[in-house]
Design brief:
Blueprint lengths: L6 E5 L4 H13 L4 E5 L2 H10 L5 E4 L8 H4 L2 E6 L7 H8 L3 E4 L4 H8 L7 E4 L3 H14 L4 E11 L7 H11 L2 E4 L6 E4 L5 E4 L5 E6 L4 H8 L4 E8 L2 H12 L9 H11 L7 E12 L2 E12 L1 H18 L5 E4 H4 E4 L6 E4 L5 E3 L4 E5 L5 E2 L1
């Protein structure tokens, strides 16, 4: 829906990703962007650093949102992993549009089940999920029947991450999860199922199955028989060590408090690079013949690309009417303009936004381009 309200509230707006989202949106919507969170002093300090182009707001996402600020909010962007979907539900019920950059599968599943409300909720916005979904959609476009989609994600260990992100990564490495196929659910232990993938400038890499939420929505939205997402790190040594630990079952020890505490401290120290890469490979039928297609995107700083995708989606939602209810990013948006500058396009309007960050793009149809 297109809202007549004015303000944009970024929950976690003084965090690493939230700050970039706030500053980018404040250029387009001066005086309308609020960096929100429980710690009002942190919010004030960040807003002062922007010359008060961004405004502070105290919001506790563990509590029901106040109608005082909700009444003027056109869009709420959450950079947090809330305990449940109640905060999002309150925003939507009060006519606010909502974006979450969470990669927490349980939270996203709860949001999927929310009753229909006035606002539009976009799930899975960021790198993975987010760009992975859009690249999978791009790679599989033009196929009459999609046999399989394989997503590969490379993440650099040189970028500093917060405790919540590290905890999520360790929980995911230690997890057993189920992926739906067209015939039946398949149980998978994280960081198994090795697959060697050519990641361009990064060379051939061993990647391993990982419970990114993108594969859970894509199996339905693309109509593919199978969708799998795999992960590797920029450090091949660390990737091999984690895979070896998963193979012999040592990763289960990550649930123990002492081991978790020690590893959290170690992983809080950046090492390696800040590079990231995503490759989507789709196989299927075109005019009765089997074919495969691929596309790949790479760049620097995961936090920056997460913010860039979120900013593009937010601007398009603020400029155009969007359908109410819950939608994954690939339901409403797609990648466009890859011959020149990769852009995110709102499907039903063809309005689009250039990703405001330096990235490298390559696919099975076009030469490598740099935006």
């Amino acid at each position: 829906m297109l809202l007549l309200k004015n303000n944009i509230v970024v929950i976690g707006g003084y965090g690493k990703v939230g700050q970039t989202i706030c500053m980018d949106l404040a250029v387009a919507f001066p005086g309308k962007v609020y960096a929100a969170g429980r710690n009002i002093e942190k919010a004030k300090r960040f807003c002062e650093s922007t010359g008060n182009c961004v405004l502070p707001l105290q919001v506790d996402a563990t509590l029901m949102p106040s109608k005082k600020w909700l009444s003027d909010a056109a869009l709420v962007i959450s950079c947090l992993d809330e305990a449940d979907a109640s905060f999002a539900a309150s925003c939507l019920e009060n006519g606010c549009n909502f974006i979450t950059i969470s990669a927490d599968r349980n939270l996203l599943a709860d949001m999927e089940k929310l009753p229909s409300a006035e606002g539009c909720c976009v799930l899975g916005v960021g790198l993975a999920p987010g760009l992975t979904n859009l690249l999978a959609q791009y790679a599989s476009s033009g196929l009459d029947e999609i046999e399989s989609v394989d997503l590969s994600v490379l993440l650099g260990l040189g970028e500093k991450h917060g405790k919540a992100a590290i905890d999520w990564t360790m929980n995911s490495i230690a997890s057993v999860y189920y992926v739906n196929t067209k015939s039946h659910p398949v149980q998978i232990r994280s960081f198994t199922g090795k697959r060697t993938v050519d990641l361009g400038e990064f060379g051939k890499r061993s990647t391993y199955l990982f419970p990114f939420p993108d594969q859970f929505s894509l199996i339905g939205s693309l109509g593919a028989k199978t969708v799998h997402t795999r992960l590797c790190f920029d450090s091949q040594i660390i990737t091999r060590l984690v895979a070896a630990a998963a193979k012999v079952g040592i990763t289960r020890l990550l649930h123990r408090r002492y081991i978790r505490s020690v590893l959290t401290k170690i992983l809080s120290i950046p090492f390696g690079t800040n590079a990231y890469a995503i490759k989507a490979e789709a196989k299927g039928m075109v005019n009765g013949e089997f074919t495969d297609k691929w596309c790949m995107l790479s760049g620097k700083e995961e936090a920056q690309i997460t913010a860039a995708v979120t900013t593009c989606v937010a601007k398009l939602m603020l400029r155009n009417p969007t359908p109410s209810g819950q939608h994954y990013i690939e339901d409403l948006f797609r990648i466009s303009g890859t011959d020149h500058l990769p852009m995110i396009q709102l499907k039903h309007t063809l309005d689009e936004e250039v990703l405001p960050i330096n990235i490298n793009w390559a696919d099975s149809k076009n030469k490598k381009t740099t935006a």
